[in-house]
């Protein structure tokens, strides 16, 4: 029996505003994670391990930062003569051209291209979560269910559930109710932004919604499409077994790094059976200099540590000088923490320079310092601050 024809559409076009300064100059999927990776590496690696070779990536905001990382798709075995990786930027020239205004709007704009591909299943995934999943197993369950959509679900904290699409389940895996970011969630069972659609039926439904609402009214998948499929009894759930964390906010991004500092991290990124692939850089081995202290931390290649680093993640090229202290923080590529400086519970973007004896952050909240910012010698950035202050722009 022939394998089903699967198309994966990676949603990488959102503005990522909840990540604040981290997405001012880069696409959200291009945000670094765990030192040497990028967020988009998770869905692309899932595709590779699932044996899926046709992957389209929708881009819109800061596309250069993402295309530079993806290149020709080689790290994920997507550099193929036929199929492989394809970028979907906004376009003009047809009656469906224009700026994408939501994820359902994106499917509507690309409907002709999707129909032409003639997939048995369309897998739509976001690129701002950390997890591993065999998409082909979800497709197999979907094709055997008679559903129009299968939503991969996970349990989230009750006080955080209003950030997600929330489902209620009936008999078996049947979804009886779907609510998009409800003020008062009925359950804590959330969709984790992985959906398997029956392509033609879904696109036909989108055409009907477009006739009713107009293209701008289509909005996101959860606004009208998923509720309609659920009301018609054509939605099924596929519970994710294992770790999943949305990292679309600064606090969630920081907390996800804390998860991976554990003695047994929730996902083994070097698992020989399921490694996380990325576009490799050219960095020498990390250098831990005499007198340095490094404890419960991830230290990438190309770093130089002469000070004290505890509970932190250092990306390539980070320098922590003698007498400097970095605690419970995430330092992105090229950050320099100069002698006598102290960084606590902070996320420092690319090439931030923390001057001598400066203090950044503290124990109360996560502090965020934007790309290439300079923190003057002896100055103080209070806990929870944003530098530069977005209110001053």
Automatic annotation (TrEMBL):
GO terms for molecular function: glucose-1-phosphate adenylyltransferase activity. GO terms for biological process: glycogen biosynthetic process. The keyword Ligase does not apply. Gene3D superfamilies: Hexapeptide repeat proteins, Spore Coat Polysaccharide Biosynthesis Protein SpsA, Chain A. InterPro entries: ADP-Glc_PPase, GlmU/GlgC-like_hexapep, NTP_transferase_dom, Nucleotide-diphossugar_trans, Trimer_LpxA-like_sf. Residues 9-260 form the Nucleotidyl transferase domain. It comes from the Bacteria. The keyword Nucleotidyltransferase applies. Keywords: Glycogen biosynthesis, Nucleotidyltransferase, Transferase. Residues 294-365 form the Glucose-1-phosphate adenylyltransferase/Bifunctional protein GlmU-like C-terminal hexapeptide domain. It holds the Pfam family NTP_transferase. Belongs to the bacterial/plant glucose-1-phosphate adenylyltransferase family. This is Glucose-1-phosphate adenylyltransferase.
């Amino acid at each position: 029996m022939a394998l089903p024809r699967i198309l994966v559409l990676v949603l990488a076009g959102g503005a990522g505003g909840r990540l604040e300064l981290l997405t001012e100059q880069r696409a959200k999927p291009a945000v670094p994670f765990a030192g040497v990776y990028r967020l988009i590496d998770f869905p692309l690696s899932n595709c590779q391990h699932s044996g899926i070779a046709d992957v389209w990536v929708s881009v819109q905001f800061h596309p250069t930062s993402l295309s530079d990382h993806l290149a020709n798709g080689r790290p994920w075995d997507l550099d193929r003569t036929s199929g492989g990786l394809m970028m979907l930027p906004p376009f003009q020239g047809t009656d469906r051209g224009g700026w994408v205004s939501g994820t359902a709007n994106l499917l509507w704009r690309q409907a002709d291209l999707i129909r032409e591909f003639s997939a048995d299943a369309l897998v739509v995934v976001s690129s701002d979560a950390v997890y591993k999943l065999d998409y082909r197993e979800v497709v197999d369950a979907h094709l055997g269910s008679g559903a129009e959509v299968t939503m991969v679900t996970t349990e989230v904290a009750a006080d955080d559930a209003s950030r997600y699409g929330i489902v209620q389940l009936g008999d078996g895996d049947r979804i009886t109710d779907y609510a998009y970011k409800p003020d008062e969630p009925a359950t804590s069972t959330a969709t984790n932004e992985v959906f398997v659609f029956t392509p033609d039926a879904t696109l036909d439904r989108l055409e009907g919604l477009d006739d009713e609402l107009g293209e701008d009214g289509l909005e996101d998948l959860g606004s009208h499409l998923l509720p309609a499929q659920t009301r018609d009894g054509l939605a099924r759930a596929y519970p994710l077994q294992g770790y999943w964390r949305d990292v679309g906010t600064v606090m969630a991004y920081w907390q996800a790094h804390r998860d991976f500092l554990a003695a047994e991290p929730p996902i083994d990124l070097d698992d020989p059976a399921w490694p996380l692939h990325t576009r490799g850089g050219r960095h020498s081995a990390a250098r831990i200099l005499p007198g340095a202290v490094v404890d419960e931390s991830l230290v990438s290649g190309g770093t130089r540590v002469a000070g004290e680093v505890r509970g932190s993640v250092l990306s390539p090229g980070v320098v922590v000088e003698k007498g400097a202290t970095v605690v419970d923080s995430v330092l992105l590529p090229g950050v320099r923490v100069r002698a006598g400086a102290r960084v606590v519970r902070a996320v420092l973007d690319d090439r931030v320079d923390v001057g001598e004896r400066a203090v950044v952050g503290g124990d109360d909240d996560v502090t965020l310092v934007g790309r290439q910012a300079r923190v003057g010698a002896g100055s103080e950035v209070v806990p929870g601050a944003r530098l530069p202050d977005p209110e001053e722009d």
